[in-house]
Amino acid sequence: MIKSTLIGLCLVLCATLKAQQDVYFTSTPALTPDGSQIVFSFDSDLWKVSSSGGTATRLTGMDGVEEYPRISPDGKWIAFSSTQYGNADIYIMPIDGGEIKQLTFNSAGDRMETWSWDSKTIYFRSGRYNRTAAYTVDIEGRTPKRLFDHYFNWPHNLALHPDGRVFFNESWESSNQVHRKRYKGAFNPDIKTFNMHTGEYAELTDYEGKDMWSTIDKDGNVYFASDESNGQYNLYAFVNNQKTRLTNFKTSIKDPQVNANGGFVVFEKDYQVYLYDVAKKRSQKVSISIFKNNTLAQAQEFSTDRNVSAFDVSQDEKKLAFVSRGELFVSDISGKFIKQLKTKPGERVVEVKWLKDNKTLLYSQTAGGYTNLFTIDAATGTGEKQLTNDQGFDRNIELNPALTHAAYYSGRNEVRLLDLETFKSETVANEELWGLYNPQPRFSPDGKYLTFTVRNDFEEDIYIYDIAEKSVHNYTKTGVPETSPFWGPEGKYLYFVSNRTQPSYPFGLRDGRMYRIPLVRQEGDFKSDELAKVFEEEKKEEEDKTEEKKAEGPATQIDFEADVLRAMEQIGPSFGSQSNPFVVQSGDKTQVVYSSNHDEAQRSLWVTTFEPFERQKTEKIDGSARAGEIIQVKKNLYVNTYKQTQPEQ
């Protein structure tokens, strides 16, 4: 009877607690001195697991996020950062769990870095006094001390050598821009050292890219990460004082840490923990399982109201397609009758466009972790077809005026054209696009040109692709940012946002202003010519209408040799910050719609109107404080007033 009861209890326990295998988002790992155990951060807490893998044990259950655990060389303590009370502070606890003690109490963020070799002092970085600097605090939690006094700017990624040298970086590229791989320039991080006893300073690397994240064992073996070999962060070491690559991964590692006694290096890769065996010169993933309580989530209904992230209107202006919470929907133009289209389960739809037949939708959706292009029959919700299979995000879909081709970005370098009859893609430009907050590519009114922005020396230049000639032109080349290009509907101007006096690097575009460039040299209108038109005979209206139907849009001519700096014309307000221009035309009026905060109030949509022989006029569009994406179908503008727009760069 007792045996049966125990078996039943075990079955209940196993059903309640299920080990989650192949866990992702395990981060900031560290090793015990002998290398037998790994402590890492997962699900906002610290966990411990054998270096050979297995089921992890939870060490903390605090309210904040616990990360960057570092184990003392004597193997007795774990020091870590936690946001228990809002900002990050330094805490300490016994290696096997127990009482947790808070060591720092500053309102700035304190991030754990390393230990002294006697296990009595903790080294951390902090933003106190409005500047990132290095500090120490003893394990009793007495007043922290600044490590360097007037020597270095922004020291971080600290590691201590047994001979007394402090290893560190001091560039934001190794601090808050570590996600920006392949950077090469004046702010590249190098491995630097300073001896606190002798005052000796040295730079151990001189590679133009990124060398960072030093970690050192008790024998003085130094390991670090660099992207020199293939543009991805790999593990390196100094072997006989020579920089030597130890791994050759195609995806980057992060936060390497060697055990105090030496022999193993643990790091994060692909959101999981990996271990490098120094003697065997081999890396392998540490298989970790986590026991988690299974719970039954209550079924919930979500409203799409105020949660539309992308939308499009069919060319017949009878139907609407939109994305809400990663799901795809269609409706009538009023949004009264809505149907959800069943796309791949567990994947997220991002963008959507109607094709020429007013029945087929082209959209981007995650597949294998990356957004790819798909089509589906909007009427039946069937026939979903994947068009691309890229391991790089396909995004920023834009259709040409004739609806025969679509432009989009793929990964961080490719601009592509998609033939909407064959659904075959062609790469038309391979440039430095970057992967975040790209402005939309735009077709010229006649569909003969495509404009987009490229990062040159970190600043955006406006590029134009000649579709017939298959040639790419850097149109601006100014050394300061020009972004969000938009063709004038008349085919004579290119509108964009820029700051003419300040580069955007490293903090993003500040105080952007609206500008336009004439694509070819133009003469101004004369009142005498307008008067002469009054006396001209009426021309055949039918011939004019026939010719107008033949053209896709006003012909666009571009002088690629023109001095664009001299031709730039600022439009709109000269204060505040403007962004995201959209240009429309009605008769002789050209209206530039854009986002601005120049009235010192909430950011809203404004419109600047150009009309022959009239001063330009700028007016606020009432009720546009929450406006996002704008599209134009025929002569009508549609505005998403609920979209959560991207933050300004």
Describe this structure in words.
This protein has 649 residues and is mainly beta. 6% of the residues lie in helices and 44% in strands. The longest helix is centred in the N-terminal third of the chain and has 15 residues, at 2-16. It is globular and about 100 Å long.
> How would you classify the quaternary structure?
single chain
State the strand order across the main sheet: 2-3-4-6
Describe the biggest sheet? 4 strands, antiparallel
CATH homologous superfamily placement of the largest domain: Tricorn protease N-terminal domain
* Overall 3D form: globular
Number of DSSP helices? 4
Give a count of the beta strands, DSSP E runs of length 2 or more.
53
Uncertain segments are 1-17, 546-551, 644-649
Distance N to C terminus: 69 Å
Question: In the CATH classification, which architecture of the largest domain applies?
Answer: 6 Propeller
Count of individual domains: 2
How confident overall, as mean pLDDT? 90
- What is the top-level CATH class of the largest domain? Mainly Beta
Q: Round the Cα radius of gyration to an integer and report it.
A: 30 Å
Helix content: under 10%
CATH topology of the largest domain: Neuraminidase
Overall SS class: mainly beta
Beta content: 35-45%
Q: Would you summarize the structure shown here?
A:
With 649 residues, the protein is mainly beta. The protein has four helices and 53 strands.
Please tag this protein with its features.
four-stranded antiparallel sheet; disordered C terminus; Methylamine Dehydrogenase, Chain H; mainly beta; disordered N terminus; 44% strand; 4 helices; single chain; Neuraminidase; 649 residues; 2 domains
